[in-house]
Amino acid sequence: MASKVLVLTSSILDGNSSALAAHFQAQLAGREDVSVTTRDLVADDLPHLGLAELSSWQLAAGERTAEQRDLAARSDALIEELLAHDVLVLAVPMYNFGLPSQLKAWFDRVLRAGVTFRYTENGPVGLVDSKRAMILAARGGQYVGTEMDTQTPHLKHMLAHIGITEVDTVFAEGLAIGESRREAAMGEARQAIEALAQQI
Questions:
Q1: Which of 41, 60, 128, 171 could form a cystine bridge with 10, CB 3.0-4.6 A?
Q2: Full pLDDT tens readout for the chain, 200 residues
């Protein structure tokens, strides 16, 4: 059975994180044992999560109005897509030390109590089993291992919350420092991506 890979991009620019995602996909091209689905979260333009949509999830499907069914369908479709794949690849730029709001909007619909995680007396338990994730992160500055990298812990925490604890990371940093630094960082990231692609 072919491994199924879901690649999410979230850059508002035709930028470095998208280039990392493209390089990853190129490594899998032509492989009969892998199928790849891509979702451009900027093109999808998910709205920020609002109360009406959140409330629609809390009703049984048969109790929803037509509007509530449409609202709930956004989350349902994204969760169904996630569950249908074995590997989740997140291509992530850093905007103001955090996630693009487009990616946050995706997580807001995928982290759903009773569906992808549940609360217990001992804390939340993830319900998304047997999946791994890869983070392909592109940053203008250098943040890995510093207090300024709030992005990586945030991503890993959200993934772990739904049960995805096997997470590989690739960083391309210092991309705005100068062209030589950018070329070196992107080259190192591409090599790391090639190694990860061989593991699928």
A1: 41
A2: 789 999 999 999 878 999 999 999 999 998 999 999 999 999 999 999 999 999 999 999 999 999 999 999 999 999 999 999 999 999 999 999 999 999 999 999 999 999 999 999 999 999 999 999 999 999 999 999 999 999 999 999 999 999 999 999 999 999 999 999 999 999 999 999 999 999 99
Burial class of residue 44, CB neighbours in 10 A (0-12, 13-18, 19+): middle
Region label for 145, one of left (φ > 0), alpha (ψ between -120 and 50) or beta (otherwise)? left
pTM of the predicted model, to two decimals?
0.94
